[in-house]
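quick one before i forget lol
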Amino acid sequence: MWPLSNGGGLAEVDRALGRPLSYPCWIELGAGGDPIPCRIGDVSQGGAKLIVANAASVPTQIRLRFSLTGETCRPCIVWERFPDGVGVRFIHEK
């Protein structure tokens, strides 16, 4: 939770709320396939909405790359499909 000044008092702003943005990323398919370019449309601590051209082609388990080289990535599961993309939940690796 983030504290926020509210006229002399403190209000809690939930960090889990989605933050709208537009950030390039790539969906890693594994097995040597070319990554699918996409954009992050909304993001929260637990997941994101990815804007992707062919949402039906995105498999259920993916790695979301935040750079084309894949140096920074997060494992995800697709939990919702939209006409313009997919909703993913981040999987926390141990």
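fyi The two ends are 24 Å apart (CA to CA).
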